[in-house]
Amino acid sequence: MAELVYSSLLRVQNVSCNYVYHTTRRGPALSGTTLFHAVNSVWSTIPGHAIEGGDQGRGVFEGCFFEDVVEIAPAEPENQLFSASDVNAASCESAFGRACYANGYSGSGAFDSSDTGFFGDFAGLTIAPAATAMDALGYVPANCGIGRL
User: Fold this and answer.
1) What pLDDT, in 10s, does the model give residues 21-59?
2) ∠ at Cα 135 (134, 139), nearest 5°?
3) Active site includes 58?
4) Are 17 and 41 in contact (CB under 8 A)?
């Protein structure tokens, strides 16, 4: 996953049906000038950061499920992150033409990043469809991840 996300040239990466689990304290790095849209993915059993990166990486996370993740992202991330919730879901309408689906959590730290300053960077790009975080939790672990392309 980190290899997929790290890029100094990546404009947008829609990642859906992704299963990130049992990593060694590090998850995907939104580095370079990455513009990232994580949709209906599941992060599970991660003893460190699930998401990190440099100061120019930007990411929207919606309809994702975080299960037993110690720290989803640093409390004050260097990069710009937006984690969809019931409270801020409508903020996505300007960028995606629809509200975002809230993320779900079980046994995980908080992920309350709500930076929308980069939403204009999605203008003119194809936006992946999404479903609920519970739909992702029910489908992704059995059908996605290593060996299930």
Assistant:
1) 888 766 777 888 889 999 999 999 998 888 888 788 899
2) 115
3) no
4) yes
65 forms beta bridges with 42, 104
Domains belonging to the chain, first-starting first, are: 2-142 (2.160.20.10)
Choose, from 26, 58, 98, 148, the residue flagged as catalytic: 26
Total Cβ atoms within 10 A of residue 89: 16
CA distance 95 to 24: 33
Note if the pTM is more than 0.90: no
Burial class (CB in 10 A: 0-12, 13-18, 19+), 63: buried
